[in-house]
């Protein structure tokens, strides 16, 4: 039914947004030519990616458009923050992201035994974690960066995909043999989950801890017949969380600076207070791109980019970002809903939920809706790993949509042949 | 089990999460953002001020009360208050360390002309100027009248609600350099100079509140009641004595008002009960925050939970669970003077651009109609009698008829507060005044009434 929609219109809208945005930036910033190069490069990439999807009949057409809209907003804001440091490099990451998108699509689409490889995902994840723990660098309190040959990345981003594939093995029902003839895979999955979470706690990457836990609970809700196991997990976590709050200074600080950031505004409450000041001074329509004082916001290019967008494009600009995510996630839900292959369905649901949870946790965090835990805003924040992994996730989603579309077509063909006879 | 059904549930959960974020964001912007935009830790507000010359503030006759001057050395605008301490509780201060208060805070946008479209080609943008209703001559005269005593004076025009003078003492120097170097000293001073007593100080109003009780008595047809004043009111565990333990004998209501008999008014309050007292008090604005006023105010209040008749008796003489600001008492007096119509008080009459074009004008507004004109006329008669032959004779001015009410309010630990509220000329009220001397120890009639008289006289003679 969606084939009848004229898909060209949203694509043109995206281009229009790019042209207007970058031309405006260009004239507003004393005709800095680099802005035009960034804008041109971004539009070129978008046109190529979209054209490939159309020409190669890669299924779902809207996912990439919505993601690119988010990317555009991000790049505009990053150019405004610091064009050499973030604006121009982000284009390189987006190019790599585009490559990752197609790579993930091709690899996922052509291999049909993903559902049998649970030990690979678990092992791979653990190895990445161990490497980070041993060789990792500490950035912003979290020891979650790995540097290989001068190229740094965040392994925890990659483990997100591995974790989803791992969960999907059990939830899709393709892994039903007891481990060592005794342990139900259900418990192996739970153990694996807490192993990952444990590693993340060691790295003090609280944001990702929260993301993985909520994802696990939501998957349990979708797939477990009876709610007991899910409730048991929630209860256990609540107990551990309370103990953590009681004994771990880190968690206390976060909760206190959430409840009352003004009490210690020059220290623990500083980040969230600066973020709120930015949002408050933007008003409904914002100060205008380039007119805000985003330099006061800490980590403005990554975790706090939403605050900068709110300051310069207003609360309505921020709302637009949330609605774009809602659209993106709705499309993902739709693909998941229509998927027939159980493994595809489980992976699709995992990817959909992880995007939604990440976005909720970081936007809720920087607006003081929930306690702040630093993670990136997918597609908008600056960052190599974040952009590449987000695009790779989208690539897998794209592959699922194509697989299911093809399965449907084959089915329809068989049916129509039957009719003809 | 149907997984798709569960997926729909999750979709709903996600939608709720996202929509709650949007709702929160809009709520935040609607209700929280203004407070944050003026938070002293928000560096943004100081950024604007480098290239905007903050507007001037003038009194009603054009006397300059606040201006910004460029400091050639540092290249920044410095805020100057020619009368230093005199307007510290009205204009407030603007400091990059301690933020902004009072008019400097409330009118920040206008003083920086943030909403205006600049048509000027000058490099330095000019903010809007404020024209106040205050009369500088009266303000400085009133300040001198307090002569270093802790307390407050509020003078209103009862016909319009314009604030003519508003003095609180102790005060402080709002110049930012002085404020920043003296801050700890100011904050740690026990008499709290930062407190704007006239608008934010809460005191028991004492006998001045008998104005409200008398109005309630008139409405409940008790104006002909007679009392046998023994000097001591005893009922249900409370004992109240008249001021100076005097027994006034057999008296009627007007006489009881004139000599300020606690016995008579406690009896009235006890008879009418808590519901009547609470209801009429709320009509006069007690328990109602004064919204949109130009500076911050405390809400005068009666803690209305489980009041009994004994509480009502205490409220009737302005003690017990009742606390009011001097501003509130001036408003109540104005309402009586203005035949039962309470005008909304205001301080800023006009906002003008630097070229003199009015951007905003504020005109008189009716706030409440607490009592009927007949009732107001009755209370006016009682108040005239107080100055004519009662406890407030020291407020008399030759050739001008003054109406008023004295008060000496008790508080638990320290000496009594001396109060006087009044207005003049009685036939055509031009000014209503409330005076309080904190912990003065002497009575309202001897300490506060002469100050009120002088302020009234000064205003009417100018």
Give short descriptive properties of this protein:
heterodimer; A: 421 residues; mainly alpha; 2 domains; three-stranded antiparallel β-sheet; 14 helices; 3% strand; B: 462 residues; alpha+beta; six-stranded mixed β-sheet; five-stranded antiparallel β-sheet
Q: Can you describe what's shown?
A:
The complex is a heterodimer of chains A (421) and B (462). In chain A, 72% of the residues lie in helices and 3% in strands. Chain A has 421 residues and is mainly alpha-helical. A 3-stranded antiparallel β-sheet of chain A has the order 1-2-3, with helices on one face. In chain A, β2 (142-148) and β3 form a beta hairpin. In chain B, the strands form 8 sheets. In chain B, strands 4-3-2-8-18-19 form a 6-stranded mixed β-sheet, with no helix packed on it. A 5-stranded antiparallel β-sheet of chain B has the order 10-9-23-22-21, with helices on both faces.
Helix amount of chain A: over 70%
What radius of gyration of chain A results from the CA coordinates?
22 Å
Largest interface: A-B, 40 and 34 residues
User: What amount of the residues of chain A lies in strands?
Assistant: under 5%
By oligomeric state, this entry counts as: heterodimer
Helical amount of chain B:
25-40%
Order of helices and strands of chain A: HHHHHEEEHHHHHHHHH
Which word captures the global form of chain B? globular
Q: Order of strands in the sheet with the most strands of chain A? A: 1-2-3
Chain-averaged pLDDT of chain A: 87
Helix/strand layout:
The complex is a heterodimer of chains A (421) and B (462).
Chain A lengths: L7 H21 L4 H23 L6 H20 L1 H28 L7 H18 L1 E3 L2 E7 L2 E3 L1 H17 L13 H19 L2 H18 L4 H20 L1 H11 L10 H13 L22 H34 L3 H25 L17 H37 L1
Antiparallel strand pairs in A: 1-2, 2-3
Chain B lengths: L2 H35 L6 H7 L1 E2 L3 E2 L5 E8 L4 E5 L13 E2 L3 E2 L1 H5 L1 H4 L13 E2 L2 E4 L3 H11 L4 E6 L6 E7 L6 H13 L8 H4 L9 H10 L6 E4 L2 E4 L2 E4 L7 E4 H6 L3 H22 L17 E2 L6 H8 L5 E2 L2 H12 L4 E2 L4 E5 L5 E4 L4 E3 L4 H17 L13 E7 L7 E8 L6 E7 L6 H18 L1
Parallel strand pairs in B: 1-7, 2-8
Antiparallel strand pairs in B: 2-3, 3-4, 5-6, 8-18, 9-10, 9-23, 11-14, 12-13, 15-16, 17-20, 18-19, 21-22, 22-23
